[in-house]
Amino acid sequence: GAVPRAPYLDDLNPAQRAAVEALDGPVLMLAGAGTGKTKALTARIAHLLTTGRARPNEILAVTFTNKAAREMRTRIGRMVGEAVEGMPWLGTFHAICVKLLRRHAELVGLRSNFTILDTDDQVRLLKQLVQAAGIDEKRWPARQLAHVIDGWKNRALGPDRIPVGDVSAFDGKGVDLYAAYQARLRDLNAVDFGDLLLHVIAIFKAHEDVLAQYQRWFRYILVDEYQDTNIAQYLWLRLLAQGHRNICCVGDDDQSIYGWRGAEVGNILRFEQDFPGAAVIRLEQNYRSTPHILGAAGAVIAANKGRLGKTLWTSLNEGEKVRLIGHWDGEEEARWIGEEIEAMQRGTRGMDPIPLDGIAVLVRASHQMRSFEDRFLTIGLPYRVIGGPRFYERQEIRDAMAYFRLAVSPDDDLAFERIVNTPKRGLGDKAVQTIQVVARQNRVSLLDGARIATDSRLVAGKGGNELRVFVQAMERWHDQVVREGDTHVELAQMILDESGYTAMWQNDKSPEAAGRLENLKELVKALEQFDSLQGFLEHVALVMDNASEDGGEKVSIMTLHAAKGLEFPAVFLPGWEDGLFPSQRSMDEGGLKGLEEERRLAYVGLTRAERVAIVSFAGNRRVHGQWQSSLPSRFIDELPKEHVEVLTPPGLYGGGYGAAGMAVGASPVLQAGMASDLAERAARADVYASPGWRRLQARAQVRPQDRFGREPGESRGLTIDATADSSFTLGDRVFHQKFGYGRIVGAEGDKLDIAFEKAGEKKVVAKFVVPAPG
Ligand code: ATP
Ligand code: MG
Description:
By secondary structure, this protein is α/β, with parallel strands linked by helices. It has 5 domains: 180 residues, Rossmann fold, CATH 3.40.50; 74 residues, Orthogonal Bundle (Arc Repressor Mutant, subunit A); 183 residues, P-loop containing nucleotide triphosphate hydrolases (Rossmann fold, 3-Layer(aba) Sandwich), CATH 3.40.50; 145 residues, PCRA, domain 4, CATH 1.10.486.10; 39 residues, SH3 type barrels, CATH 2.30.30. The protein is 46% helix and 14% strand. The protein has 32 helices and 21 strands. Helix 2 packs across helix 3, helix 6 crosses helix 7 and helix 21 runs antiparallel to helix 22. The radius of gyration is 29 Å and the shape is globular. It starts with 6 loop residues before the first helix and ends with a strand. Bound molecules: adenosine-5'-triphosphate and magnesium ion (MG). Adenosine-5'-triphosphate binds next to helix 3. Belongs to the helicase family. UvrD subfamily. It holds the Pfam family UvrD-helicase.
């Protein structure tokens, strides 16, 4: 029929337009980043609506995240107006399956008001089953079982369909426990995330009439980010699309980054076999990024072997090269990025100012976020963390903080409740109730109540003994806080270790455990910047406060995984070091699989940037309380010289150790960029007189062992030339970030006694002060 002229068709290129106008039959849009796949998919939905092919509630549109769904809804709204409000089936797989399952719950033995368990609930339930089965939970933690079961659910395998190769899972008891778990969920009228899809697939398979009804109802199916669908999602889509075959999938094999969670890039590569006669549309023009950014991203991904390969071009002006900068350590990286963001906001390098909403920091691992959160908070730079809780909201961090809070304030009852049985001390609900009653009767804190309850043997047995140990330890830690015996950093570490909290996660075999331990280390590291536990807790209270306020312009901090599909004028990509990115795990595996997924992640990261991409790495990071140097990421070597500008670290304090101190490791890009720069800077004698240079010498002098985690001569990557002998001397005027200006009145080890002009006399770690004029 006559297709009304629609403005949304006008801003599409011919290939996109073909994808939008090929309304019937299977369509695959397979194209690189930023080529307008999502834009075309959105226009296609608008077109279906305006041409009357489907009513809003007859379109099934699947996105990868809720954020993506919201954005798509807004974009469609702009094209078709309020019709978008009638689209209940635009959302994530999970959101759509919840709706379907509520309608047909009884077909799988549930009631429509079933509850959805989160990961913690899931693990708690599995723990009960593991215990009931008499399995040694230390060797076979429930979290590991949860991981195994999730894996099966991703592959759409119920307990009755586990392949022989998998029956040995979880000490040969995995399959039985899986069956028991499913039975238990049913009794509880509950489902976990994986069940949402699994149950709906089961319903479709067992009830042809129900399936047929939805096959007719969903006249058009559209899927974004198809490369990251898992087998269960794939089967679900195929069942629904079988009848009319009006399915349009878009994706990019180079952006498949969820293999670790069961995604099958094979799904997208197999599309033409699954849907013979599919129109395959390739888009090659990138509208998002400048040529330098695209060139850099393209070169990185070209190093992968297993890929289809695509051409990408852009008509945009050349723009800025990808900037590359190395830093002394992670803290300095965060500091530099904070300042660079402030500069961008004002407009730098002759560029228009970039608002904070247009700036993102994309990290490989969530534990990297902490240093950025702290830094941005310190300089008052508004930020938001997207996807996943902020650092201080994470379970393990809250637990650890509860220990610190109780050690500082023994009457903090909320903190007591949180940790009295974490790790498990054999205290049941009844024991905890007893403590509460005793505390109330005696009008004392829960901690005091616990002491009374154990002394009077109201709480006895194994739990009572462990409780006594806990109470005594807490009193000892409190004493130390009061007496300021050990440094607060040592004390914090001691509390985590002696309480058994560290061991709890060390014994935990789940995939998250390693990350949680990393986060705990980050937490202890963060303490170094404060002068007491108390001061630290106050700081965190501020961070938390900042968390509740919303609205307004903010920098986004998120993982690379969470950044999929998004775009920002300026993107920071910190932590490009071997062992962090690519992750140690992917390097240890040896094979290509893990490493290639990491490389796709690098590609995703770079291609988020519209105008500015800044890659950075730190020569030193603290690992296990020791400074370790690391090599710049191998991905840095894959960035072509012609697209990269190597920046010399300014040295935040005026000079720069980029000059003579930086020995560049294996990276040809770095060597090329640095060589000329080094020569130039070395020629500037004033460098050696600058405060930055003096500071570096001082730092390198203090405890080289600490700094490098090994002898300086052995260190790899960035090293500082620590030969000169000048250092702080008594009477020097210095500046400390927290306490301001002061004069050195004494020194001991790596600590300085400083008489601060405002804050009085304090002992501070030498590396946190810089020389000040006067
Ligand atoms: P990714 O693979 O990262 O998800 P994508 O292929 O989905 O990327 P989009 O997000 O749809 O790409 O588009 C990238 C940018 O290019 C958006 O800002 C979009 O508005 C713009 N764009 C897409 N197509 C065109 C076009 N034909 N003309 C002008 N701008 C376009
Ligand atoms: Mg997209």
